[in-house]
Design a protein that fits this description.
mainly alpha; two-stranded antiparallel ribbon; elongated; 182 residues
Length: 182
């Protein structure tokens, strides 16, 4: 994590695939002297799939995401609702319809709310293919972590981090990324 105190900016470095696999896979603990001990930690298939992906985070955690994670850690009931809802909500394209309101406006332009980008049928088709896969993986991660007894705040953070690894088109389509154009 990098913090620039003068401007109040916090940025998070994405976890690479190898680093995540090390965090989630087999942990080896060395002891002093000539002997060592190993502790094997098993992980769910969904988590293993997540760790083995060739991609890294498309974007790091945003300040808003970190505040939500902090709030979840402070309130277990809220964390339960957020983690379960996050895992079960269906991904949708967030459209900007602001310039299509008012008298005489009858034609719908497919414009993304996050960036203002005009999209076509091919974008929608690709988005919903990816969204179907992402939605299924979020449910798998949630179920596997819940079964292991992982606290809901940690599950919520894992789901946010998982979402941050999706393609730029997915993040832009869902409005998960920040708006960069007018």
């Amino acid at each position: 994590m990098n913090i620039q105190a003068s401007s109040g900016i916090t940025s998070y470095q994405p976890t690479d695939r190898v680093g995540l696999a090390k965090k989630m896979g087999t942990l080896t603990q060395s002891t002093s002297g000539s002997s060592s001990s190993s502790t094997n930690v098993s992980i769910s298939d969904a988590a293993r799939n997540f760790a083995s992906q060739e991609t890294v985070a498309t974007q790091g955690r945003t300040a808003i995401q970190q505040r939500a994670i902090n709030s979840a850690a402070a309130d277990p009931q809220w964390a339960d609702k957020m983690a379960e809802g996050f895992a079960n909500v269906r991904s949708q394209i967030a459209y900007d319809i602001s310039d299509q309101l008012g008298p005489g406006k009858h034609e719908f332009t497919r414009k993304l709310s996050s960036t203002g980008r005009i999209i076509d049928d091919a974008f929608e088709e690709n988005f919903y293919k990816e969204a179907s896969r992402v939605d299924a993986q979020k449910k798998e991660i949630y179920a596997a972590e819940k079964a292991k007894g992982t606290p809901s705040a940690e599950i919520y953070a894992k789901l946010i981090d998982f979402t941050n690894t999706q393609s730029s088109d997915y993040l832009e389509g869902t409005g998960w990324c920040a708006r960069t154009t007018a």
